[in-house]
Amino acid sequence: MMGLKNKKWRLGVPRALFYYYYGSWWETFFHHLGVEIVVSPATCREIMDLGVELAVAEACLPVKVYYGHAAWLAPRVDALFVPRLVSVEDKSYICPKLMGLPDMLRAALKPCPPIIDTTVDLARRREEGLQSAIKGMAKALGMGANRVVEAVAAAKARYREQIFTPDGLKENTARQKLTVGIIGHGYLLYDRYLGMDVPEKVARMGGKVVFPEHLTEGEVEEACRQLSKRLYWTLGQKIMGAALHFMDRDDIDGIIHLTAFGCGPDSLVGDLAERYARRRGKPFLLLTLDEHTGEAGLNTRIEAFMDMLYRRRTA
Amino acid sequence: MKVTFPHMGHLWVVLKTALEGIGLEVVVPPPCTRRTLELGVRHAPESACLPLKVNLGNFLEAKELGADTIVMAGGVGPCRIGYYAQVQREILRDIGCEYEMVVFEPPDVHFSEVLEKVKYLNRRPWQEGLRGVMLAWQKACALDYLEQRVQHLRPREAQPGRVDAVFQRALRELAAAASRREIKRIVRQAEREMATLPLHTGRTVLKIGIVGEIYTVLEPLVNLNIEKRLGTLGVEVVRGLFISRWINDNLFKGLLPLPSHDPAKTAPPFLNHFVGGHGWESVGDAVTFARHGCDGVIQLAPLTCMPEIVAHSVMPAVQEAGGVPVMTLYLDEQTGEAGLQTRLEAFVDMLYWKKKRDKERRSAGAWGYFLGVGRGS
């Protein structure tokens, strides 16, 4: 990789998984370092098929889609940016599959471009972990310290600005009576192909959609205090916190949990959320997506759920 | 208080001894059977991993025998096992099965929490309790030692099943043993009996390394007795996971001078970071087994196990670099005996022919070298 030091980099960033959380940070950071960023296009049939073919069958759908994005990028860039995300906050983890992602890709992609796999591990000492991750990224690209400080500042500013909402939900104002909380991983909710546009579907059937990202960190934490043990998955905590928060709110009529087949943490977190919802009498719909999920079946289930909510409302 | 705990292979012998050692009344759950599995599957989340389901079945069956307290281990991620207890508690609550749960979490938060729990359970003076725990540890070592002898003898004995019978009896005796002297006597006795078993002569014995998630590796119910099946097919099984080693690595933090996994050294460049569970060890062990002349490696994992999926994903690279065939088997409540047997037979057949071909090639190569032709030209 040293030989590429003075070259103008074309760095591939897959539009999947944590791109939906940190994409803006990464883009600004690399842009400031004078690195050309190539982000893969939005998930489509071609990309999903590429991934499904490459990944082991047992991997979860979002990881398969990530493989697809990486495979799409591989012939088009000098290197792939696949950070090894171990932990992004104190004493919490990201899913094991993300810890192994760079190695998994190296074993699957033939030929495989160089992979920048900086480890991001903030589980013990948050600040130190972040510093070393940033240093690692810059070093991999052969950049000096001065430019990095500047780039980090810019990236931070941009990251704070961006509050995550999927753009352009077409809400059906004629029938706007219900509020539905949709919980799930960001890379599922905001990837329109992978997530099968569920939020949009709900909105079109007359639901006002609320996402976990609409809640503050404090609200999530507050709600999670009901649990007997802290959830050690960053996103699991967010999903559970949102679920519990939505359950306690009278203005939310129902909760939809969108999950991907094979998602490990969701198999436990989702079950707990459903149990709590049942005990509290809050309508709860679990939608599990995989590469075989049919649009019609999904529509029917959402319609039935929405109808049920209307009936509860008017009853 | 009547305590129970989840099953995992022969772990019950160790746990029973330790818990009785500190003065508790212990209800060992009935041995895992299809019923255990079915009970667990009925109430557990569908896509949860298999150990959670079987453990739940254990708790429900132990309840029938009057248990009222569960002792189990927890964790702080990233693998799902750390949250088993919480999910199981809610499930048991929803189906009206009352249990108290004492969950031992790793002492990385506060060691005092662990001590509190031990204090809560302990019914005897410290010295006596400690003696019980030491006895449990000695039993774990004895069991693992004998099991390794069994793995060696299974493919070589002339009458399949004899060595297992010896082992089963030793297991029962060990469970009841009350002193170190007794343990030693049982081990010596079993060894003597094993030494007298009639052996095959001239059978080609293949060597297969078993790696994977600890529960599926150690629990015969869920792996459908894979080691015995392989033994009958003429395969000597080796593995890196043993209860004593697990206790040493996890509870004593590797303090005791036992051979231990060192995935940090063996797994790279295939897998460069821990991934929770035993994923890193699986890759590291596969590399170790390939280097030490195993003919093949079998990876066992519960379906949807996250760390093992990572390991599985990099296995093609291990296989390519080490020249050792790797087969991954996911196990769940749907796994059928006939299907597993067929896959094992096919894999063993393939290894057998590969070994034969490699041997022929080697000898042909040697002759070519001797005659001054071939090789390197």
Automatic annotation (TrEMBL), chain B:
One Pfam entry name: DUF2229
UniProt superkingdom: Bacteria
Coiled-coil residue windows: none
Alphabetized InterPro entries for the sequence: CoA_activase_DUF2229, Dehydratase_Activator_Redct
Domain DUF2229 span(s) in chain numbering: 13-238
Protein name: 2-hydroxyglutaryl-CoA dehydratase, D-component
